[in-house]
Every structure is written in structure tokens, then in C-alpha cells.
Amino acid sequence: MGGIIEGRVLEVFEAIRGRRSVRSFLDRDVSQSQLERIIECGILAPSAGNIQPWEFIIIRSPERKRALARAALGQEFIEEAPIVIVVVADQARTARVYGKRGADLFSIQDTAAAIQNMLLAAHSMGLGTCWVGAFDEDEVSKVVKVGASLKPVAIIPVGYPRYYPAPIGRRPISKVMHEEVYSSKESQRR
């Protein structure tokens, strides 16, 4: 049984290491079953009090994708993807249980966990995605017709990648891991 668990761990690590932000897509549809599996992986994410504050709005319309690209400060590659998922957080749902901290933090953390699950699921199916966070929230809200208690958190174009970008450098563990308390790596050298 240990080998099965180890095999699963390796698959997760490979997906995490292999995922890239894709900004160029082939003209090839994503199936409904692939889309549903991506959304399913999103809803399997942990959430504070199991509130599940996320909503997923699927965009296929060229006009609406164009409007999202404009709202995302001109990121035109959004239009190129066959499917775009707008992920919103229902802050009011979380606030009913956890108050202001729930609305301002927990709902965003929970939704971000769902987004990461979705990105990894899409990658595991050979699809490319990009977590787009640079956008005008009010404009995105208008495009997808959500009210004030629903906060747009991400725009995720999904499709078959035209190419996979090369890996980019990451800060080493020695620079980001701290024991017991935070310590600036600069102060350790003095």
C-alpha cells in the first residue's frame, strides 16, 4: 500500500513542477467532461468551515471573452482560449460565519485553493491555463453580471497550449524557510 501512496505523491509533484502559465492556445475545443473535471477539482479544495465560497462562471462567447480581455488591462490572450473561467468568492457567505476576517481573508484563501486545484487538474489533462489576477474588478463584475457580495478573484483561460513556456527560476528553500521565527537572511550574515 505504501507504493501506491508514493506513486500518487510523485504524480502530484510532477504536476506541480510541470505546470506553467500558458498564454497562447490552439484553436481546439475543451470537452465538457474535461471542464467538469476541472470544476470538480476546484470544489474539492479545502475551505474554512466547509463553506465553499466559490462560484465558477464559464465563458465561451467571443464577445464576453473580448470584454474580459479589456477588463484585464488588454491581456488579449484571454480571447484566444476556447473557455475562460471567472472564479468569484462569495464573501457574504463566509462573513455569515466568520465576520469581517472571513469575508476579507478566508473567502479569498479558500477560492485561491480551488483555483490552484483547477490549474493542476487542467495541466494533468494536457491543458494549459493562466491565473490572471490583473484586472478591473468592477469591469469583470459587469461582464459576468455578479453583485457586490461576489468578488472576482481570477480569470482563467483554459485550452490546449500552443507551447509550454520554459521553467522559470524560484527562490531557494534556504532563502524562504525559517525555523521557529522569521529572520531576515541579511541579519543572519551580520
Radius of gyration: 18 Å
- As for the number of domains, it is 1
CATH architecture: 3-Layer(aba) Sandwich
Largest sheet: 4 strands, antiparallel
Number of helices: 8
Along the chain, the helix and strand elements come as HHEHHEHEHEHH
Low-confidence stretches: none
Briefly note the CATH topology name. Answer: NADH Oxidase
So what's the oligomer here?
A: single chain
β-strand number: 4
Q: Per DSSP, what share of the residues sits in E-state strands of 2 or more residues?
A: 5-15%
Describe this structure as you would to a colleague:
- The termini are far apart.
- The radius of gyration is 18 Å and the shape is globular.
- It has a four-stranded antiparallel β-sheet.
- It is built from eight helices and four strands; from the N terminus they run H-H-E-H-H-E-H-E-H-E-H-H.
- The protein has 190 residues and is α+β, with helices and mostly antiparallel strands.
- It has a single domain, classed as NADH Oxidase (3-Layer(aba) Sandwich).
- Helix 2 packs across helix 5.
